[in-house]
Amino acid sequence: MLAELGLAILWMAASLAGLQLIAGSFSLTKDGDGLGAIVRPVAIVQGVLVALAFASLIMLFVETDLSVKLVADNSHSAKPLIYKIAGTWGNHEGSMLLWVTVMGLAGGIVAAVERRLPERTMMATLAGQAFVSLGFYAFLLFASNPFQRLSPAPQEGNGLNPLLQDPGLAFHPPTLYLGYVGLSIAFSFAIGALVTREVGPAFARAMRPWVLGAWIFLTLGITAGSYWAYYMLGWGGWWFWDPVENASLMPWLAATALLHSVSVLAARNALRAWTVMLGVVAFSMSMIGTFLVRSGILTSVHAFAVDPRRGGFILALLAINIGAALVLFALRAGTVTEGERFEVTSREASLVFNNVMLSCILGIVLLGTLYPLVTEAMGVKVSVGPPYFTPMSAVFAVPMLVVLAIGPMLRWRHDRFARVRAVLAMPLGVTIVAAVGFALGGVRSPMALLALSLAPGLGVASLLPLRGRHLARAPLSLWGMVVAHVGIAVALFGMGADAAFTQQRLLAASVGQSTQLGPWRITLASIEPVAGPNWTALEADLSASYAGGAPVHLHPQSRTFWAPPQTTSVSALHTVWNGQLYTVLGEETHDASSAATPTGRWQLRLWWKPFVPMIWLGGILVALGGLLAMVSRVRQDLKRRSVRTRSRERKA
Amino acid sequence: MIRAAVCALALVAAPVVALADDTMPPAPYAYRQLDDPVKEAKAQKLMETLRCLVCQSQSIADSDAPIAGDMRNQVRLRINAGEDPEAIRQWLIQRYGDYVSYAPRVTASTWPLFAVPGGLIVVAAAVMRRRLAKRKNA
Prior knowledge:
The structure holds two protein chains of two kinds.
Chain A: H1 2-26, H2 36-63, H3 69-74, H4 81-86, H5 92-113, H6 119-143, H7 167-195, H8 201-233, H9 243-268, H10 272-294, H11 308-333, H12 347-377, H13 386-406, H14 417-440, H15 446-463, H16 476-501, E1 503-510, E2 514-517, E3 520-531, E4 535-546, E5 552-554, E6 557-562, E7 565-570, E8 572-576, E9 579-590, E10 598-610, H17 614-651
Antiparallel strand pairs in A: 1-10, 2-3, 3-4, 4-5, 4-6, 6-7, 8-9, 9-10
Helix pairs in contact in A: 1-2, 1-6, 2-5, 2-6, 5-6, 5-7, 6-7, 6-11, 7-8, 7-10, 8-9, 8-17, 9-10, 9-12, 10-11, 12-13, 13-15, 14-15, 15-16, 16-17
Chain B: H1 3-13, H2 37-47, H3 66-80, H4 85-96, H5 111-137
Helix pairs in contact in B: 2-3
């Protein structure tokens, strides 16, 4: 019953989205005024209904109702509860339902709270949001129904890929989706403002919390995804320029540019057309990311739908949404003036520079990700990987990081470089000292050296805007910027350190054997079998002592799941202040002469990775900076609103 | 992120150009480093830019697939014998095609990969000139 109920609720939500689109659009015409009143309530009810539909799918997974095809294909009664719940979105249909749910809820919240914009702009925005949602509703209902029944119901489900049975899965996709979908709100605001020709500071202020929120979630999602890959894959890599990773990086790059230009628009009423354009691009990148991941065009486990019909459907949605937005932009671009002016040496100009650099990096990533698909269509298979992406994006990233150090020190509109020159001597000095020091210390890779020397200078420069201020009284949004920029420097240092200082040791060890790795003395103390709820494993007990200190114990496992049957290695990590020890247990080695004779020696893979956790610490700081900025902005907005209400009451 | 599993699946589904039978024990240098740290560093650097042919977006330096192990063995043996890393890459490209190398070469079908970034620099310079120069006159 629950499955049918869920489907019915989903249909109702979709119909309300249709109503929202029609009423919102007609309310913009001359005689449609009365219709405007129902748009906001409809948007709210739509959000509630789609959330109920999603809740019923979660319930089906919790109960492991195997008569539902999706549950039978992706779940198993013996799975721990948390993975039953997480399994709801660990598949194509469920994740698309999560997408429309977040979109519906976000639209509902906008409808409920946003009162600053002219009502006509709001109607256009909500109609735009409904238009995008409708496409995804259609996709769900016609091409990927999550509530489809299966007859006869199987005895047991297929289970969930063991690599997905990890706390990372519980948070990673929803976090990214919140980011993607937050950008859909920015997109809808951009559409609304274009339709009603209301691109200005009020529009920017309404859009900003959504952009900030989306950007925080994207940052966290990418950071978590990177850490997840790092410890799950068992080879110590943290970023692979994999198309799936790029799919999440591209919206982040666009959102980062959008975030900065929306601030300029809110504060200075400049960069109007640019901000609208970025709003369109950012959500387009979210949809392209979804298309790449979900269409099956990239053969990966992320591509749950290896089904060309679905790929075609998403591609059509993509073309309609992006195409319509670009046509609208082209029609209205002439009427959106550039806004306030500024000079070359000004904060706006440095933000423009960094926006352009971010867009170029976005271009490189998009090109490198899509190009192999193009050549494959021409019959040539090529690979584009780290040796292409890293230097190519560095061409644009390095000037950007330099300007990032200077820009926040400049004044709005007009400034003289001579004014900040003296202050910037400090970060420049730090960079030079770091470069010379690391070069003499034996860092040979140019990329690593660049990162390791830029990072400390950038870190110092990022703190400079606080100079001469009373720290407790500095505005929270300023703190947000400082923390986020310091986070970039911290992450950059971690990346450089990983490339420059990582030490690796591969060995076949018998129980009792020891090895030296950097400052660590590591001993294989024992190998024991252990069992979990749906797996068995061999577990190594590694005793590791840092520079002769008291030993710590690490327990890497070679884990065998039985539904579906698969073996994975589970790495064990130990973090100290200056790095991370990374250990993996492989298989028992065999005699070279006969594969059947075990040798009692076990494959161990050990890494000492100095300062590597700074990569993810940096990512968290960046997100924290975003959070501080968001709290500050929302607080300002609330204050402004209460002032407005009070003055209105006084008048009345 | 789920590439290890894909590797395993891909091996069952399509036994591609496997250099060795996977019932055999892994080749000697699949899970063993070269004794000379300079040569090992060279090998590691090269392995990070070679694609594991049966995996989804993993280099042979971070894959558990048997074929990746065999390729690591080949790379280490050849580096140890004193071969130049780029020569080894060329040898692998001859055997497996351009797909095996993560560093695309400039060819008739890949030149846009290198032309477009150059174009981006020009466009970026033009955009900035237009936006910023106009302000001065205004």
